[in-house]
Amino acid sequence: MSTPLSSRCRLLCLSLLTLALAGCAGSTGGARPQGAAAANAATSADSLAQTSWELVRWTQTGGAQRDIPHGDNGEPVQLTFLAQGKQYRVNGFSGCNRYMGSYKLQSGKLFIDAPATTRMACVPPERAKLEADFLRGLTAIDTFTLDSGGAPRHLTFNLRGGDVLEFERRQDPPTP
Q1: Cα distances (Å, whole numbers) of residue 9 to 30, 44, 115
Q2: Which residues pair with 157 in a beta bridge?
Q3: Labelling 19: which of 122, 125, 132, 158 has CA 20 to 30 A away?
């Protein structure tokens, strides 16, 4: 018979294993831009630099909307693109942990390398699953779209498995 403590330990271990596996994923393999604004953005690594995005909608294959809970402190799932010199980084909050990685726009495609994460426990199982799926999704982007080339407010990632992640632009980080 399981005790509440042993159940919590199993859940914690499962959460940590899920996060470790999510951090082992590869890169996008080159997400193709869709539409004029995304094609324009894909011509320069600086076009996404210093922008910050919040995940506002996750549509699963088949059309069902996935719940996107905020973190313990009310922090939303976020994606920030940063550039300093020749270093292009992504970072953000994935539901329970902070993550960081790199990105590049090359040959008209977006590449995001496997993000590394902090290792905080993520007790609610649905939030731990969302986090693992989100981090895995960042490395499985098939196509991306932007709503405009000048100052986009909406970013969409179409994942290889059919899910669609929609982001809205938030306050951009300061330019270094």
Answers
A1: 38, 46, 25
A2: 144, 165
A3: 158
